[in-house]
Write a structure and sequence with these properties.
It is built from 9 helices and 14 strands. With about 475 residues, it is α+β, with helices and mostly antiparallel strands. It folds into 3 domains: about 180 residues; about 100 residues, Helix Hairpins, CATH 1.10.287; about 150 residues, Heat Shock Protein 90 (2-Layer Sandwich), CATH 3.30.565.10. β11 and β12 form a beta hairpin. It is rod-shaped, with a radius of gyration of 53 Å. It starts with a helix and ends with a strand.
């Protein structure tokens, strides 16, 4: 079944069917047990009535057994021989013996002799020996045929001692027809009602599930339309409920918003990259064409500068592409103080000398990551400071907050507070009379922040006193 509604309806129906089956079986078992106990109680009463008569010395052939069809009676002696049965009893089972004919004439002479002795004044049998057992009777299910009608009975067995000291067992039955009719009626009602209940459950589940999943179908249709039109500005409908489907719709719209922003950012990136690459390529081509036609006019220095700028731009674009693709930073153990000193020592063409401040004891300045990428971050921050500084550029390294901080400070005009986040966007350059030749492509700070974030750190800019800017790179310490 591919439909969620069908699977939900089937699952609910199966669960309800199992629950009803278990509950119905339990009801039937309890009902049968209660009715069987009632029949056993009736059989016990009938057996004790007959046992009482035997204890009083009533002869076997004069026993009153009541209604033979309702309470068939069989009396056996200590040896299991049948000594008395109720009238019209033709067959019996469940009492230990299936005989229904007394094995010997009813022994009433002893009782009659006892009466004559009483009349003569002689001793009579001890009345204390006449008793009915007070123990709980034994119960068993069986059948009996009375006057040609065979039926199921619940038999109770009660012991009694007559005047002659003979222990007899009275087996009296109570019909189970009422129990069977009641159980049959309940079972029939359950079997009749169960399909109806299951149909109702399946239908209600189908309708409720259909209503609950209706917003999901709306979300699916809208997503299909967005995929077909490639219009990421569209959004799926959000239901007014506060359930899981509403949260799914909101999450889907948030994903579409993030995807739209990512695609837009990618488009701007491609457009800006194309624009930035066009200028050095066009300039280099022009110089080479002029040099080919007029070798004496070839500007080798300018061609080399354009080539270097083009190479640096291509390297930045490749690094950003790898970062966007999810490239994980390295796990090399680096000492940031030494890295900063090495990076500054290699900068021989800076117009303003860089002051480096690193603690004498370099302990606690270690981080893990990619040496190449972190060196690029330090270099980009130094390039930015050299570009805007008037007289001084300083670099300080220190341990702070469980990590290492690298601060690059310049005494330039600083960064307006409203622009302090915007400068970390790609291809963004503040319009402060910088030309492309002087300013670069606007990728350095964006690349530096991306690398910092990939290393679990952060990069922010603040003011450096009355004037200038302070860029603070924080990286977590090595673990």
């Amino acid at each position: 079944m591919r439909s969620v509604r069908a699977r939900a309806a089937l699952g609910a129906t199966v669960v309800v069917a199992l629950a009803l089956a278990v509950a119905g079986l339990a009801v039937l078992l309890v009902l049968r047990a209660n009715l069987t106990d009632q029949a056993g109680l009736q059989a016990e009463v009938a057996a004790r009535e007959v046992a009482g008569q035997l204890a009083l010395g009533v002869p076997y052939d004069r026993l009153e057994t009541g209604d033979e069809e309702d309470h068939p009676v069989q009396v056996t002696d200590e040896n299991g021989r049948v000594v008395a049965v109720s009238k019209d009893l033709e067959a019996i089972s469940g009492t230990g013996t299936d005989r229904v004919t007394p094995a010997a004439p009813a022994p009433s002479a002893a009782a009659e002799d006892g009466d004559e002795d009483d009349d003569d004044g002689t001793d009579s049998p001890d009345p204390a020996r006449r008793e009915v057992s007070t123990d709980d009777p034994d119960f068993a299910n069986g059948t009996a045929t009375v006057d040609g009608d065979r039926a199921d009975y619940r038999f109770a067995s009660v012991e009694a001692t007559n005047a002659a000291g003979l222990t007899l067992t009275v087996h009296a039955g109570a019909p189970l027809a009422a129990e069977q009719r009641a159980v049959g009626s309940v079972r029939g009602a359950m079997l009749t009602g169960l399909p109806v209940v299951l149909l109702v459950v399946a239908g209600v589940t189908w309708l409720v599930t259909r209503r609950a999943l209706r917003p999901v179908e709306g979300i699916r249709r809208e997503m299909a339309a967005i995929t077909a039109s490639e219009d990421l500005s569209r959004r799926v409908p959000e239901p007014g409920s506060h359930d899981e489907i509403a949260r799914l719709a909101r999450t889907t719209n948030e994903t579409l918003t993030a995807l739209e922003a990512s695609v837009e950012r990618q488009r701007r990136f491609v457009a800006d990259a194309s624009h930035e690459l066009r200028s050095p390529i066009a300039s280099l081509r022009t110089q080479l064409e002029v040099g080919a036609a007029h070798p004496e006019l070839l500007d080798v220095t300018g061609a080399v500068a354009d080539t270097v700028r083009l190479q640096a731009l291509a390297a930045d674009l490749l690094l950003l592409a790898r970062l966007d693709a999810g490239e994980r930073p390295g796990t090399a153990l680096l000492e940031l103080g030494a890295l900063v000193r090495e990076e500054v020592s290699q900068r021989t063409g800076d117009r303003i000398p860089v002051t480096v401040s690193v603690p004498e004891e370099a302990g606690g300045l270690e981080v893990t990551g990619s040496r190449t990428q972190l060196a690029r971050v330090v270099g980009n921050l130094l390039d930015n400071a050299e570009r805007h500084a008037r007289h001084a550029v300083a670099v300080a390294v220190r341990a702070e907050g469980g990590g290492v901080v690298v601060e690059v400070t310049d005494d330039g005009d600083g960064v307006p507070e409203a622009e302090r986040e915007r400068i970390f966007e790609r291809f963004v350059r503040l319009d402060d009379a910088r030309t492309r030749d002087e300013g670069g492509a606007g990728l350095g700070l964006a690349l530096a922040r991306d690398v910092a974030v990939r290393h679990g750190g952060r990069l922010a800019v603040t003011s450096a006193g009355e004037r200038g800017a302070r860029f603070a790179l924080w990286l977590p310490g090595a673990r």
